[in-house]
Amino acid sequence: MNQIPLPPRGYTATVVAGSFAVLLAQVAYSLPGALNGTFQQEFQTTGSQLTWITAAFAIPMVVFELTTGVIGDLFGRKRLLQAGAGLTVVGSLICAVAPAVQVMWLGQVVAGLGAAILYPISLAMIAALAPNNDARAKAIAMWAGFLSIGAAISPLMGGAFAASGNWRGAYVVVIVAAIASILITATATDSSAPEGRKLDLPGQATLALGLIAVLYAATQGSESGFGSPTVLAAVVAGVLLLAAFVIIELRTESPLLHLHLFANRAYAVVAIATVIGMFAFLATCFSMSIWLGAIQHQNALVIGVLFLFIQGPAFVLVPVVSHLIRNVPAQWILTGGFALMAMGGFWPSTFDVHDMSWTRFIAPMLILGCGFALTVGSITAVAINTVPVRLSGMASATTNLLRDFGFALGPVLIGAVAFSKANEWMLEKVGPAIGASGLESPYSDIAGGIAHEGGAMAINSMPVVPGAGPDLPPVPMPEQLHQLAFESLGSAYNTAFLLAGLCALIAAVLTLVGLMGHHESSAAVESGESEDLVAV
Questions:
Q1: Which helix (H) or strand (E) holds 388?
Q2: Stretch 73-101: mean pLDDT, rounded?
Q3: pLDDT tens for residues 377-425?
Q4: Are 74 and 160 spatial neighbours (Cβ–Cβ below 8 Å)?
Q5: Could you tell me if 77 and 129 are in contact, meaning their C-beta atoms sit under 8 angstroms apart?
Q6: What is the DSSP letter of 294?
Q7: Among candidates 406, 398, 496, which has minimal Cα distance to 58?
């Protein structure tokens, strides 16, 4: 009779610490979700400046996750997890006192560096101590559930503070939670996996610079134009740097990323579907937040409530997802989850921006959340369970990198596409709209300048056309211009929802076809040799 291995000492405390740490990371990451409209009005941002608030957090988070995974493997994960929470304290403090959007970007960068530690290290600590695959699947489902509950409570908390007129208080709560995470982690068991691991500085440099260049080009393209020399140069530099990263990783003895992992068909398929599917998920979330907050100027608390419907299922369905991961082939769980996410994107693409009823978002956002609940834990389980235990730190960091790269691309690309389209459509008609509004010079010139410099978002949000001096006071922004900007943004974000749905559908087809015939087998990867990685 086979005995079930008992969990090692400190296992429960480690699962609690890891789960709370990922909750903290997700709270910090998701907080702008309900506050985009508030930020837009507080700092009078353009569309790309608003997108950069989220991108400033996501870029360092994505760029440094693999490196923090290596550092944790080499020197121990417990203190590193506490350092991640400490960076979250510093970054949130900067955001809490930010007088301008540029300072918000700085705070988000620091908090993003903290998240680059919290996400992979919390997962690696849990995976390293799990006594068997069943226990690991349950712990991963719990970890994913806390990630989702963090994403649910964060916008709700932000919306509540914004509704009370004090959005900065939400960042104070994050600071308190980060301090609590440091204390909770003190009770966890440390772990490491230094065998065959060392810092890969050339790999990290090329990966970091390459990802930064690509994400910069995607974000800045909406403002400068995707054909501008700066954006094109960033794209070329990013592609060359990432190609150099691949060459370096194939030749180094201790790679930052074991590229042989991708020789495993299941791992490679899930990796690609992760980036595409998580892009679709966050693109839909971001589009909903912009639609209700920055376009319709609805109460931030409304957006927070909708995020409960998005993220709540992933926490409520933890036992169900844990059971499915252990008993149902990943092909069907992932295909079903991505298909639900596609439906959650397609549905809002039919909405009319003039309809101010926010409750119509409840059903599609709930469907989106159920799809996310099925996919996020399954993605992690497939990645962790198809590699040897000694590579669990690398696999967890890589999985987080891919998921968060998709997350980072969501608001960056969908925001760039939508704002670019909205500005293009508005500028085609802004001249006749100014003529029909009755604005006279110099107000007509000033309004035209705002339209060309700030785009549809600026026109939609500005109540007045500024004057040109003490003898020329501001005048109300003409309704013709408001309506033009409003409708341009609404039409652009209909397209954004549609694109997000299409990407989720592509991820569903990819997992349905790509995982056909795949059977999970932990025994196949226990040796840790590259041949074993190919065998699964």
A1: none
A2: 95
A3: 777 777 666 666 666 656 666 777 788 788 888 888 888 888 888 988 9
A4: no
A5: no
A6: I
A7: 406
CA distance 154 to 113: 19
Residues 6+ apart with CB under 8 A from 251: none
**Cα–Cα dist 470/357, whole Å:** 41
Structure tokens that stand for 225 in this block:
């134009």
CATH 2.60.40.10 is the classification of domain 11-200+254-422+487-535:
no
Q: Which two tokens stand for residue 78?
A: 């417990």
**What distance in Å separates the CA atoms of residue 256 and residue 309, rounded to the nearest whole number?**
37
Q: What angle do CA 41, 47, 52 make, to 5 degrees?
A: 95
Q: Which residues contact 384 (CB under 8 A, 6 or more apart)?
A: 123, 127, 136, 140, 392, 395, 396, 399
Q: Report the candidate in 438, 470, 397 with the shortest Cα–Cα distance to residue 193.
A: 397
b/e sequence 91-116, b meaning 16+ C-beta within 10 Å? bbbbbbebeebeebbebbbbbbbbbb
Per the model's pLDDT, the better-predicted residue between 487 and 469 turns out to be 487
Lookup: tokens for 452: 């060309």
SS3 state at 473:
coil
Is 53 within 8 Å of 421 (Cβ atoms)? no
- Among 266, 284, 329, residue whose Cα is nearest residue 505: 284
Angle between helices 78-96 and 168-185 (to 10 degrees): 170
Q: Three-class SS of residue 515?
A: coil
Those residues whose C-beta lies under 8 Å from the C-beta of residue 94, and which sit 6 or more positions away, are 103, 106, 107, 110
pLDDT surpasses 60 at 94: yes
Tokens 């600590």 map to which residue?
Answer: 125
Percent pLDDT > 70 in the chain is 90
Question: Can the peptide bond before residue 442 be classed as cis, meaning omega within 30 degrees of 0?
Answer: yes
- Rounded to the nearest 10°, the torsion over CA 388, 13, 174, 308 is 70
Contact of 59 with 208, CB cutoff 8 Å: no
**Over 60: is that where the pLDDT of 525 sits?**
no
The rounded distance, in Å, linking the Cα atoms of 2 and 175 is 47
pTM for this prediction: 0.78
CA–CA separation, 92 and 110 (whole Å): 8
Rounded Cα–Cα distance for residues 64 and 87 (Å): 14
Residue 78 has pLDDT above 50, yes or no: yes
Give the residue among 35, 120, 131 at the shortest CA–CA distance from 80. Answer: 120
* CB contact at 8 A, 36 and 293: yes
**What residues does each domain of the chain span?**
11-200+254-422+487-535, 201-253, 423-486
Round to whole Å and give the CA distance between 123 and 322. Answer: 16
Supply 34's token pair.
């309900």
| pLDDT of amino acid 101 | 92
**Token couple for 198:** 């060392």
